[in-house]
Design goal:
Layout: E1 2-6, E2 21-26, H1 54-68, E3 94-99, H2 110-122, E4 139-143, H3 147-155, E5 160-165, H4 170-177, H5 185-190, E6 204-209, E7 216-221
Helix pairs in contact: 1-2
């Protein structure tokens, strides 16, 4: 199995020790096992991939406003990721979006599906993707033992990184990107014994912030429910 970091957004590669923040979410809701044959197809191949349910597709759409805000209706998760004045650049905009997937397109495609609408809204020219037909052309591939390479790419970002991942791998992804998380009390409480609790809902957002140098970890809840 491979991990694909989908470089849907890549405004700049500033040389720095770490981004301002790293945001990690799990993919949206999945269909019940007995409805797996309703999952979406990729590359028009006969093999079905594991796609999102209707609730998961609603979450994918919701995440656009969750991260970027909807004027007069919804504030962004962090105000410094956007700017109300188009002539003023955001302080810490989203500069990189990545998603976990399988290399051959026959496994889970849910993380790519979940984050694709956000990427398309941020930069349509860079991510003109139809998530039901194919994966984005701007794909950076990483095997399961190459998280250090992903960390290298993430560390070159200056502002906000958003990663949509397979839930069971999130407790391994986060400390791979920031080793200090292994001793962070909030991280340890969130992922006891390094595992993703099976009863966790889909609406959790995990954030590492480098404000002032030392990384901090916090969990937020999305308002979207199935």
């Amino acid at each position: 199995m491979k991990i694909i970091a989908v470089a849907l957004i890549f405004f700049s590669l500033s040389v720095c020790a770490s981004p301002y923040r790293i945001i990690v979410i799990r993919h949206g809701e999945e269909p019940p096992n007995d409805k797996a044959n309703e999952a979406v197809r990729v590359h028009s191949e006969p093999a079905f991939v594991q796609g999102l349910s209707a609730a998961g597709q609603r979450r994918a759409a919701y995440l656009v406003g969750y991260f970027l805000g909807i004027p007069g209706k919804q504030d962004p998760l962090f105000p410094d990721m956007t700017s109300k004045d188009p002539s003023v650049k955001p302080v810490h905009p989203i500069t990189f979006i990545g998603a976990y997937s399988t290399e051959d397109g026959r496994g889970t495609f849910r993380p790519v599906e979940t984050i694709a609408p956000l990427a398309s809204v941020i930069n349509v020219d860079e991510a003109p993707i139809d998530v039901y037909d194919y994966a984005p052309a701007t794909v950076k591939q990483y095997s399961a033992d190459q998280k250090s390479e992903l960390k290298h790419v993430v560390d070159q970002q200056e502002h906000t990184v958003v990663l949509c991942w397979e839930s069971n791998d999130i407790p391994r992804l986060i400390p791979a990107l920031e080793p200090a998380m292994t001793s962070d009390p909030t991280f340890q409480k969130t992922f006891p014994n390094g595992h993703f609790p099976p009863d966790y809902p889909y609406n959790l957002t995990f954030v590492i912030t480098y404000d002032g140098g030392s990384p901090s970890f916090k969990v937020y809840e999305q308002e979207q429910r199935p």
